[in-house]
């Protein structure tokens, strides 16, 4: 059975949308500007961009405003907008070491070359509500907490990647063959299994933050073999480069903010030469949680095991996309009258043949006592499968 | 030092330059009504960002970046610009400025100065950001000796 369309008054649907819009405008406060969202709520816009697979901070701020802070809805709006655009080209392939890092910590190496740079973070402070923020908008110009810092402005250094340190020691399991093809593009061709690693990385990079985090966490909680040590976590800006159409030289269009994570996983029990296996995470914007969880999933999937959910690429890639899960979960609230009527008819028929209740309807059920309830409970076990088949 | 007379450098400077500066120069250039052909309409488009994963060195598609390119022909000289985001006016202004500098427009010196100033501003901003981050560099100490 397929879908059966329903129709309702267009005007009523518009009224409901107006009521939704009114919620954003309720109260006497000034409307939140897109500039404010872009500038002050960049974790929200970063999450929307990351889950949309589309880097556009200004448009993401607009989407967050329109979605009233619902990041998945905002990502949906961005993907819908993206579907109207042509692709100009691919960028020059970037090496993450080109990233201008504003934050880099290495949980693996205490004395990492280039140093541990905390950057802008509150990771090491207590999670206490700051009630001063309730009134800081009343100040004409909020104080810059770094205004008194005496810093020497020098050219940014390129920080040595921890992976390079391990590679120099021969501890990195080098690939037998260098991949020299074009990477797959899952926005143009559906993922098929068995899946290649470039597809896994692309899908995880635009996975829904909560789903990626939950699945990564499952591996740590015993439903998997990977409990990695993070080689490093970085936040920074990567140049977006193209070949200039006149000069054919590589030129920078802009910089995009990224979060990156690399993990080492010991595999000495599995290989003759004890080395590390690795997991990698990279995502648009500031979203370290997702980058780290992506790292765990990448490492888990590379085990080729499939004995745990996080190690099964088909399972992971089927459930991490926010648009897919959002659409499937939320479509359940749309009219299913025909489906439900069909289920009702079936249950009533079964009950009638079993001699419980009456085929007349639900009103009689209350009179039939415990036996009737048990029968219904047994029958209802079939209904989810029927709904799935319909959908 | 980035040279705004160089086409590739100029592309990067135009991409980083303030919108109002580009618009002002484009308006000045168009005041004399020079022959202008739009070779590529400024409209938002996508660049697929490809990244090389650092262990297997395998490239993958990270996601798309919204950019707005534009190309013009001004007085027989081609100009091309690309701005980040949805930025039709900025891209068109940038392409006009690019063509004007390439063709030796009489405002070239002023445009070159402004573009190079934008480059210096961008570099100073990065230097400042780096210096602030460096100011948070920490040396962790293991406490095993104290246990």
Please describe what this structure looks like.
The complex is a heterodimer of chains A (about 400) and B (about 150). Chain A is α+β, with helices and mostly antiparallel strands and about 400 residues long. In chain A, about 40% of the residues lie in helices and about 15% in strands. In chain A, strands 3-5-6-7 form a 4-stranded antiparallel β-sheet. In chain A, strand 5 (about 230-245) and strand 6 (about 250-265) form a beta hairpin. In chain A, helix 8 crosses helix 9 (about 290-300). Chain A starts with 9 loop residues before the first helix and ends with a helix. Mean pLDDT of chain A is about 85; it is low at about 360-390. Chain B is α+β, with helices and mostly antiparallel strands and about 150 residues long. Chain B is about 45% helix and about 25% strand. Chain B contains 4 helices and 5 strands. Chain B has helices spanning about 5-15, 20-30, 90-100, 110-135, and strands at about 35-40, 45-50, 60-75, 75-85, 135-140. In chain B, strands 1, 2, 3 and 4 form a 4-stranded antiparallel β-sheet that branches. In chain B, a hairpin with a 2-residue loop joins strand 3 (about 60-75) and strand 4 (about 75-85). Chain B is elongated and about 80 Å long. The termini of chain B are far apart. The mean pLDDT of chain B is about 95. Chains A and B meet through helix 3, strand 1, helix 4, strand 2 and strand 3 of A and helix 1, strand 2, strand 3, strand 4 and helix 4 of B.
